[in-house]
Amino acid sequence: MNAISVVIVTYCSDEYIKDCLDSIFLHCDLPDDELEVIVVDNSPSTSDFLISVVGSFSNTTLINNPKNMGFGQGNNVGADAACGKVLLFLNPDTKLIEPVFREAIDHLMKHPDVGAVGCRLIDGDGRSNDTYGYFPEKWNILVSMLDKCVFKPLKYIPKKSVYPWGANYFIARKDFYSAGKFDEDFFLCFEEADLCKRILPKRTHILNKKIIHYGGHTTDEASKRFDAWLESLRKYHVKHGYDLNRTLTRYRIAYYLPLVRCLITGGDYREFKRMINKLGTLKKTLAI
User: Disulfide check for 262: which of 30, 178, 195, 267 has CB 3.0–4.6 Å away?
Assistant: First the structure.
C-alpha cells in the first residue's frame, strides 16, 4: 500500500494541471513507490492535452468520469481507485512550493484525535488565501471579526470549529471510509465541512506549510457558484438539523457591511446586493 494517494478532480483545468503535477513530484519527500496520483476528469470530454500531460508522469492514473456529478462524487471515484494509507484531495489550481507529504502523514498517524489536515494556502502573489472554513452553524459576525483581527495575526486556529479548505484536504483512508466518503448529494461547496462533521470529535490541524491556491476557476460564473453554495448550505443544515434561518440572517448581515462600505466609497455594490437578495429569497421560502 502506498503511503499517500493524491486525488485531483479536474474540470476544464488544462491551464493549471501541468504545473500542479510538476510541483507534486518536484516537492515529493517520499520514495517513488509511496506516492500515487489519481486524476479524475469531470470535463465533458477529456482533452488530448490532459491525456498527454498525465501520461508523462509515473505513478499517475487518469480516470474519465463519464458524468460530472460534482466535486465530492469525483473525489469518491478517485479514492475508490487509490490505495494510499492517507488520501490528499487536491485542487488542480494548486501548486506545491515545499515538501508537505511526510509531515502530513506523520501528523495523522501520530495523532489519532486529528481527523483532517490542511496546509496554509496563499495566492499567486504570496498573500494569505482562505485556508479553512468555519462550520456554518458556528460562524457569525463576531467569529469573523475575531478570526481576521485576532486569530490569524496570532496564527491561532480554533481546531474544533473549522475544517480544511477543500483545495487541500488530507485524511486517513480508514477515517474517510468509516465516515462514508463524501456525500454525493453535495454538488459543490460544504462537502468538506460535512465530511469533517462526520469524523468529529476528531479535530482539524493546519500545518505550517504553504501551498499556492490560485482559485476562482472552478465555476465560470460567480452567480452559478453562489447558487450552488446556497443549495449546499441548505442541504447541510437539513442533514445535520441546524437552524438555516438563523444562519441566513447572519450571512445577510455580513454582506450588508461591505455593501454599505461600497455605497460610502462609491464602489460597485451590485454583487453584494444580489447576494443579499438571494439570501432573503431563501429565507422567505423557508417561511412559507
Answer: 267
What H or E segment, with its residue span, contains residue 39?
strand 35-41
pLDDT of residue 271: 79
pLDDT in tens, 140-169: 878 888 888 888 888 888 888 999 999 999
Q: Which residues have CB under 8 Å from 114's CB, separation 6+?
A: 107, 108, 202, 203, 204, 205
* CA–CA dist 213, 167 (Å, integer): 7
Instruction: State phi, psi for 180 to the nearest 5 degrees.
Output: 95, 20
Number of domains in the chain: 2
Domain boundary among 176, 191, 213: 213
Helix (H) or strand (E) holding 49: helix 48-55
20 three-state secondary structure: helix
CA-CA distances (angstroms) from residue 122 to 11, 99, 103, 237? 22, 15, 19, 30
Tell whether 227 and 132 lie within a shared domain: no
Q: At residue 247, what is the residue type?
A: T
Judgement on whether residues 129 and 184 belong to the same structural domain of the protein: yes
